[in-house]
Amino acid sequence: MSPNKAFIFLALLSFSPQLFLSFSSAEQDNGLLMNYYKESCPQAEEIIKEQVKLLYKRHKNTAFSWLRNIFHDCAVQSCDASLLLTSTRRSLSEQEHDRSFGLRNFRYIDTIKEALERECPGVVSCSDILVLSARDGIVSV
């Protein structure tokens, strides 16, 4: 197994308990839904996929930064896209915190958000963009 495939396998394996818990709780309380934007923005996932593909062609390093960002956002807190927040005078953002070494490519989320806003203004959350772009970024490898 190549080092890249081994890394991806281990990364996905590390998320499997969280995914299992998410899906099992979704069955009980109807929390998470597949194709959530099917009615409100049917082309959302395709737009994200296309943008990730374009970014990957331009900047080959994007796949692993997607994975690292989703890990820091979901494993540390709760998949709330809080790592996209900027610092204020009173608090240091997750982006600038010492524990977040290596987080990068936040501008790519902005690029994807702009493309989505042209089609479906105010519909798709940054948290969903972060998760879906991580999924599509890893598939690009």
From TrEMBL:
Quickly give the catalysed reaction: 2 a phenolic donor + H2O2 = 2 a phenolic radical donor + 2 H2O
Keyword Calcium listed: yes
Q: Which GO terms describe its biological process?
A: response to oxidative stress
Which is a Pfam family this sequence falls into?
A: peroxidase
The protein's required cofactors? Ca(2+); heme b
Catalytic center residues: 72 (proton acceptor)
Annotated site (Transition state stabilizer) = 68
Q: How is the cofactor bound?
A: Binds 2 calcium ions per subunit.
**Gene3D superfamilies, sorted:** 1.10.520.10
Residue span(s) of domain Plant heme peroxidase family profile:
31-141
Q: Where does Ca(2+) bind?
A: 73, 76, 80, 82, 94
InterPro entries given in the database record: Haem_peroxidase, Haem_peroxidase_sf, Peroxidase_pln
Q: What is its EC number?
A: 1.11.1.7
Keywords noted in UniProt: Calcium, Disulfide bond, Heme, Iron, Metal-binding, Oxidoreductase, Peroxidase, Signal
Q: Provide the GO MF annotations for this entry.
A: heme binding; lactoperoxidase activity; metal ion binding
What is the official name of this protein in its record?
peroxidase
Organism whose genome encodes this protein: Trifolium pratense (Red clover)
